[in-house]
Design goal:
This protein has 154 residues and is an alpha+beta fold. It has 5 helices and 7 strands; from the N terminus they run H-H-H-H-H-E-E-E-E-E-E-E. Strands 1, 2, 5, 6 and 7 form a 5-stranded antiparallel beta sheet that branches. A two-stranded antiparallel ribbon has the order 3-4.
Length: 154
């Protein structure tokens, strides 16, 4: 005698397998907000390393763009690093991202509710020897877009 299989059980098993596959794909392919912030900082410094200061400027938050125009930024970055220091390129490391609540860009700027602080180390080989710059870079999200900021607060 053959047992009848319950069609509801088949649906439940199929649904559970489908959900497990979806969760596995999500875990494999989805980046966390922290990872996306770190990737943006890496993209910024890839532009900088290539001497594409206009490209890196486009990743700035509008508050940063108020600090200097794109043309001014390109001229100053190229002048300071390439001309003054005689640097052709640099290496950099991106540190571990730390989540901050209520961070502010400057004393006069509004607070950002969710910010990632990411330490950067740039190493330059120049006419004056090897020197290193340590700087914290901040990533905020507004209207589903992430932006780079530097701190201008005390």
């Amino acid at each position: 005698m053959r047992r009848k299989r319950n069609p509801a059980l088949k649906i439940i098993v199929f649904s559970l397998i489908f959900i497990c596959i979806c969760l596995l794909l999500y875990v494999i392919f989805a980046q966390s907000a922290k990872d996306r912030a770190t990737s943006l900082v890496d993209e910024f410094y890839q532009y900088e390393k290539a001497g594409n200061f206009g490209g890196s400027w486009t990743l700035f938050h509008p508050l940063m763009k108020q600090q200097f125009s794109q043309e001014d930024y390109i001229q100053k970055r190229a002048h300071v690093f390439m001309q003054d220091f005689g640097v052709k390129t640099f290496s950099y490391t991106v540190g571990k991202a730390h989540h901050l609540k209520n961070w502010t860009f400057s004393k006069k700027a509004p607070k950002f509710k969710s910010t990632y602080k990411i330490p950067i180390t740039q190493t330059f080989k120049s006419e004056f020897g090897i020197f290193t710059i340590h700087q914290d870079v901040y990533v905020v999200e507004e209207k589903d877009k992430k932006y780079i900021l530097w701190s201008y607060s005390d």
